[in-house]
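Risk register update: the risk of archive-format incompatibility is retired. Evidence:
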Amino acid sequence: MPTSLDPLVPVDEFPVAQTCTYINAANVTPMYRPAAAAITDWYRDVAEHGSNHFDEEAEATVFDELHLQAARLFNASPTDIAAGSSTTELLSSLAWAVMPGAETNVVSTDVSFPASVYPWRRVANHTGCEIRLAHARGDTVDPDRVRDLVDDNTAVVALSHVEFRSGQRWDLAAFADIAHQHGALLVVDATQSAGAVPIDAPGMGVDAVAAGAYKWLCGPFGVAVMYLAPHLATRLEPGLVGFRSQKDIWDIRTDPPDYPEDASRFEFSTMAYGLAGGFAKSIGFLVDTDIDRIFAHNQVLADHLIDGLTAMGAEVTSPRNADERSAIVTARFPGRDISDVAQHLKQAGVMVALRGPVIRFSPHLYNRMADVERALEVISGMD
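Archived output:
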């Protein structure tokens, strides 16, 4: 285990890394500085010039660069990408498009983030579809428990690629195979993995994967992307539709929409357009840095956290198996009030997250080994 590790990127691109010990990427990641600048510039231009620059052509093509960069992120084609305001929005539109019927079921876990499950629950309330949740033991779920719930009536296996509380990481290729063997789709919420874990969506066989910008992707609140496998993009009618649902968005009429023959049919209306350009910059920055390198960097930091927490008697609740781990590390502190531990860290300038009975640590590419050492030192100093 290296005793020192520098950030992968210049820390001046992430000013918070210079003002505190920020180990909280799973909550909100500081935005990549040029992404924030691009967003500010766009809003200033519209505020000062209206549609003089952001004209009809600019609005029609506003997502083009985001499509391109998200395609690089997921190893896909730009035509496989849809932009939206949030992961929840995109998954909700997809859930209504798939609309599993009364004789079918949707399989997930009871520790998934609500955005992974609630869209399917809402549709199930309408259609009578059964929602099946694999139960966790502690904070993690045995993969066999999910496999055992999948049968020939399963319409969708809906997983959070990385679970928000424990950091458990699912083998997407394995579960794509399981889903497809039963004629089901694999739909993935990658908000806790995209930008920190490599995702080859076509190569893994994933049918759809959505991710918000504001966590590991170092982007803003209010924008997200979804990869949709080509076999779905040409046959699904989106659950949410609007003026952008037309192939030509300026062919404004109330006839049934002539949907684009690609994933952009899930882009249905106006949104905070300026966020798209900033998000494209942050994704491009991460892909250029190399997601594999980011993953390896973050795992070294997580390893050191696990070793240090274990040595001081903490109960690490994240998976230890390399195939199931991510950069999220969660721990309980027997004999200590967990809220006191979280508050003590915050007062010392170590930013982490309190999630129920655990403290969640989540280092990213702007962190160094000294940040991990600082967190461990602060906790040890409580004795």
